[in-house]
């Protein structure tokens, strides 16, 4: 009980100083809790959607395992009306209906503006069915009654400002179709963001599939007393054939599996950044308790002198950390719910709609947050608590402070050097491996060991780096600058821990900046070296180039040639007997002009002979294939026997463009794939007539004005889009890393605040002999700046090393240019100085307000 009272008294006596540590715990726990609430809410949203859209039994055409792409024909596999008739005769079927649903379509308004979402959710067009009434209801207007009418979901209507009577155009592989909105549909559950459009059944069949009497799937409702499994067996027995038949549970499980990968990536990525924040928070907590213990040395000595045991002193500090962990974690869990709501709003801005009605807070979320926050806080406080327990009564009463072991500095330095050296060796191995997969483990080990080494070695480095920084930064401020330097060097362990907290976030920023800049520079160099086409035409969603859009391109003026690029799925058997499923690139004879591929044997244009194929040298080495050998190719959509293609060339895979691609001619593909299953182009390349580049680009854009899903990009546009994509990804990562940097800044604030209290008497004496308030504040600000710059130097240096090693792995994938983004690195370094200034504002202000006489009288 005495320990508890002492801990509570000390906790509330230093509540202001504990608050900053509690905020660090709060932020870290909030990120974990918010991530869990957010992903659980997304799971709830999709589970409700799957529950209302899943029928007792559903029949679809059998999926092809080798079809790794969206339908390249623009048309889905279908079921004939005769299948629906057979299903209706099966015993136990209460109701069955055919449905049409297609997501490889685009819907535009009268101004040719695409009405689909931009954040990855699909645009789905189909027929209005009885099963749709389970999840939706017509909120206004009426269901489509003929080919000139269609319905739209209310979410899309509100977002795009659509009204009943507006004319829309549906663009599919079959052609373009115009209809007016006859009704608006309300969805009973949360729609995660898909744009939904409905025709009547005959219109949907004609305009999406090309003919009536076809369906993309069949929904079946079981009669009373018949289970889903029983009905599935009966339907399978009656139909046989190559069909996929799923019960409601299997449909839900399949739907969950489809979104699980996306949710898992998001969950683990965000938890990873939360882990970084926790790591940084550990430094803050260790520093806080170390300084509090040092300030209470005399108090601890008195406790020991009146009979408190070492274990009781130790326990007293740990109980304080327990209180801190509980307070910070409880507040963090609550803040996590708010963070989850904020993330939901942010997802809404990019096209994914989530409702707070589905907000899901499982009991495991607060449990994980509390356990994590409390455990991390107590573990971080263990070393200071143990150090407090070692204070002898006589030493403490003499103000000797906490015990210091002279050997510990040498031991720390030796361990730090050993870890850093081992990490550097691992990073060095990364640059020497021949395969990227082999080097990734060494890269991870190298990053971990060098980070750990710098953390251990930080206090030793503090003395050297701070002196060097002071010579450059602080000497201009005269005596005040020298005092700031002395204060920063007074406790190297404290300065090292504070700077190291900032180092972690900035090291990751520097590493990712190097990787991102190197990727862009390498890709740009590869585009300049390899791409001969003036223009690249494709969608941003992977949809194929539809026939009507391709015809429009052919009418553009000023074009020298146009090259279609198609992906063909096949199973390839090498001469060594090994078989693998591959994607072949089927192109026109002009392709070598549009994308130049370095050849190790033969000629790239040789792929355009009859039944010829050009392969990559990695495949050739793996299967010991040489020019003149024959590969057996079984086309996924082929109607006859497997083709035998002669290897006429081997291309170098030492490139990021078309790395690993296998080329055949469009004519070879046509001779083995039926016309109705022949894939559309996934990309079109075009070259302008000499001197007509600007005219040709305008002509291409004009020709595609009615098809807004396609982008016409020249090489400059292509590079800018690549830069924008990488910048967007990096900005997201930087935003997540900002949490760790905020926690590190709190650490600087806390260290300075406690340091000011620790030096109260000294500050009072300095004021008494003439140091002005302005000079005092400047001294504290300069101390903060030099600590922040120390952390920045360590972080940026470490990050540059990590980024350089990572780029060497990327070089094995064809991204060979190492680009150091010096403007970004410089901006981060300068920004760190401002971070130091901001962190010092409150401590400097409080120091300046000290009463001189009271400060001198402080014991």
UniProtKB/TrEMBL annotation:
InterPro entries tied to this protein: ABC3_permease_C, MacB_PCD, Macrolide_Exporter_MacB
Stated name of the protein: ABC transport system integral membrane protein
Source organism (scientific name): Streptomyces clavuligerus
Entry superkingdom: Bacteria
GO cellular component: plasma membrane
Transmembrane regions listed in the UniProt entry: 268-294, 317-343, 363-385, 410-429, 441-474, 495-521, 732-757, 782-802, 822-845
The keyword Transmembrane helix belongs to this UniProt entry's keyword annotation: yes
MacB-like periplasmic core domain location: 19-236, 500-701
Assigned keywords, A-Z: Cell membrane, Membrane, Transmembrane, Transmembrane helix
Localization: Cell membrane
Membrane topology, from the record: Multi-pass membrane protein
An example molecular function term from Gene Ontology annotations: transmembrane transporter activity
Ranges where the ABC3 transporter permease C-terminal domain occurs: 273-393, 736-851
PANTHER family: ABC TRANSPORTER PERMEASE YTRF, MEMBRANE COMPONENT OF TRANSPORTER-RELATED
Assigned protein family: Belongs to the ABC-4 integral membrane protein family.
């Amino acid at each position: 009980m005495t320990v508890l009272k002492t801990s509570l008294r000390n906790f509330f006596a230093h509540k202001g100083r504990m608050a900053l540590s509690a905020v660090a715990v709060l932020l870290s726990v909030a990120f974990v809790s918010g991530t869990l609430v957010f992903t659980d809410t997304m799971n709830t949203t999709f589970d409700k959607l799957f529950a209302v859209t899943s029928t007792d039994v559903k029949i679809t055409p059998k999926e092809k395992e080798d079809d790794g792409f969206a339908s390249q024909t623009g048309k889905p596999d279908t079921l004939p009306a005769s299948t629906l008739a057979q299903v209706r005769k099966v015993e136990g079927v209460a109701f069955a209906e055919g449905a049409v649903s297609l997501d490889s379509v685009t819907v535009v308004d009268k101004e040719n503006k695409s009405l689909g979402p931009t954040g990855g959710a699909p645009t789905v067009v189909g027929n209005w069915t009885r099963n749709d009434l389970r999840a939706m209801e017509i909120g206004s207007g009426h269901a489509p009654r003929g080919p000139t009418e269609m319905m739209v979901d209310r979410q899309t209507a509100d977002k795009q400002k659509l009204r009943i009577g507006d004319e829309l155009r549906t663009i599919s592989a079959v052609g373009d179709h115009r209809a007016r909105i006859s009704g608006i549909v309300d969805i009973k559950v949360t729609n995660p963001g898909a744009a939904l459009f409905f025709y009547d059944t005959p219109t949907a069949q004609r305009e999406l599939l090309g003919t009536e009497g076809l369906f993309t799937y069949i929904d079946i409702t079981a009669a009373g007393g018949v289970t889903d499994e029983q009905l599935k067996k009966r339907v399978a027995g009656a139909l046989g054939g190559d069909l996929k038949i799923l019960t409601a549970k299997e449909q839900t499980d399949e739907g969950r599996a489809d979104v699980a990968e996306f949710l898992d990536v998001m969950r683990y990525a965000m938890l990873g950044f939360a882990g970084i924040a926790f790591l940084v928070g550990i430094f803050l907590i260790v520093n806080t308790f170390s300084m509090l213990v040092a300030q209470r040395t005399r108090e601890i000595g008195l406790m020991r002198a009146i009979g408190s045991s070492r274990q009781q002193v130790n326990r007293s500090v740990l109980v304080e950390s327990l209180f801190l962990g509980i307070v910070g974690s409880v507040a963090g869990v609550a803040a996590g719910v708010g963070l989850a709501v904020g993330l939901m709003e942010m997802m809404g801005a990019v096209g994914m709609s989530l409702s707070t009605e589905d907000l899901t807070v499982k009991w495991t979320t607060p449990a994980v947050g509390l356990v994590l926050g409390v455990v991390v806080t107590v573990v971080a406080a263990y070393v200071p608590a143990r150090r407090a327990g070692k204070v002898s009564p006589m030493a403490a009463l003499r103000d000797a402070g906490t015990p210091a072991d002279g050997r510990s500095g040498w031991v720390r330095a030796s361990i730090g050097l050993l870890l850093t050296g081992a990490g550097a060796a691992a990073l060095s191995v990364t640059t020497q491996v021949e395969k990227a997969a082999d080097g990734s483990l060494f890269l991870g080990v190298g990053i971990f060991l060098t980070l750990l080494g710098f953390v251990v070695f930080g206090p030793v480095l503090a003395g050297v780096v701070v002196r060097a920084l002071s010579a450059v930064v602080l000497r201009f401020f005269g005596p005040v600058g020298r005092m700031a330097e002395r204060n920063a060097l007074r406790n190297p362990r404290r300065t090292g821990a504070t700077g190291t907290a900032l180092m972690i976030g900035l090291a990751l920023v520097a590493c990712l900046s190097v990787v991102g800049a190197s990727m862009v520079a390498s890709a740009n160099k590869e585009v300049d070296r390899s791409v001969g086409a003036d223009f690249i035409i494709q969608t941003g969603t992977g949809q194929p180039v539809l026939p009507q859009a391709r015809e429009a391109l052919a009418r553009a003026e000023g074009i020298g040639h146009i090259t279609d690029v198609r992906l063909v799925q096949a199973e390839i058997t090498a001469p060594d007997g090994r078989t693998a499923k591959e994607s072949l690139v089927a192109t026109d004879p002009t392709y070598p002009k549009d994308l130049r591929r370095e050849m190790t044997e033969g000629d790239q244009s040789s792929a355009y002979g009859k039944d010829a194929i050009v392969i990559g040298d990695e495949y050739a080495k793996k299967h010991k294939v040489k020019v003149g050998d024959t590969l057996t190719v079984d086309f996924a959509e082929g109607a006859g026997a497997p083709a035998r293609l002669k290897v006429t060339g081997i291309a170098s895979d030492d490139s990021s463009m078309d790395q690993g691609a296998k080329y055949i001619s469009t004519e070879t593909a046509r001779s083995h794939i039926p016309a109705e299953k022949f894939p559309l182009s996934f990309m079109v390349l075009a070259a302008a007539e000499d001197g007509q580049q600007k005219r040709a680009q305008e002509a291409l854009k004009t020709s595609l004005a009615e098809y807004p899903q396609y982008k016409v990009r020249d090489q400059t546009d292509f590079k800018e889009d690549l830069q924008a994509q990488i910048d967007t990804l990096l900005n997201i990562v930087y935003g997540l890393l900002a949490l760790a940097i905020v926690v590190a800044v709190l650490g600087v604030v806390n260290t300075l605040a406690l340091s000011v209290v620790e030096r109260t008497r000294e500050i009072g004496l300095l004021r008494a002999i003439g140091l002005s308030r302005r000079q005092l504040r400047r001294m504290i600000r300069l101390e903060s700046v030099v600590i922040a710059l120390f952390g920045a130097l360590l972080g940026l240096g470490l990050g540059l090393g990590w980024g350089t090693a990572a780029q060497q792995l990327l070089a094995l994938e064809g991204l060979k240019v190492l680009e150091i983004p010096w403007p970004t690195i410089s901006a981060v370094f300068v920004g760190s100085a401002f971070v130091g200034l901001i962190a010092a504002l409150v401590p400097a202000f409080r120091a300046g307000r000290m009463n001189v006489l009271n400060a001198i009288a402080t014991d």
